[in-house]
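In this supplementary section we document a worked example of the pipeline. Step one takes a protein sequence of length 265 as its only input; no multiple sequence alignment statistics are reported here. Step two produces a three-dimensional model, which step three serialises into structure tokens for compact storage. The input and output of this example are shown verbatim.
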Amino acid sequence: MSMSLVVGSTRRNLIALAFFLFFYGAFGALLFFKQESIVYQPWPQDFDNCPALTSAERVTHQDTRIYFKNNGPKIVVIYHGNAGSACDRAFMASFFEQYGYSYALVEYAGYSNDAVSPRHDRVKKDVEHIVSFLEEHEFRQVMVVGESIGTGAAAFHAAIKSPSKLVLISPFTDLIDIARHRFWFYPTLLLVKNAFDNQSLLSRYLGPVLVLHGDADTIIQTSLGKELFESLQSKEKHMEIIQGAGHNTMFEYPATYESIGAFAR
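The serialised model returned by step three reads:
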């Protein structure tokens, strides 16, 4: 092989490597600086216009919006997933009403046509405001339900004020573990900021807890739900694996409702 061919091949390899490093770095920077918009994906739902919750009050407590209905001294607080809106989870509020619960269906800052952008710190502020709201109303029993990213909000709630019962649907250990699985080719420990660390947040929670996870979940691996469950210190913990359920199809399976209903009684 002539020297000119070797030089040409080396040059092409160096150019290819330079392009790879550029795009690798650019995509990594995008993940780092845009991670809040990757995690939180609100839909343009009008908070004041939710036909499925016409009987609920639209309450704003310390800048946090809540669909609230008072049905008596026990209440369920619902923290929804990262996509859509609280209005989309009206069916969950109706489900718990069957068991005599009041409900507080929480809408996050930045969702439902809110003027601000959703951020981790703003979601945590929403949780703090909900805890304050509950303290003002002095409910006798509080059950907290978190779904997907909402399990991070639910875990933060439990760390601030321990609820009577806790339900975690499609939970995770922390967001770094999810990122490590999806973006294994990056040093995710350095990239991910503001990660909900559910294991740490729930380390002191000793009340009854139900963990539900679909065995076909490709967004949050079932193994993360199991790992979180194993780390819980509660002596009244139960985990149900919903056979065939994916991350976004948990509520298409009767077993999900049956497990939650039995726990809510």
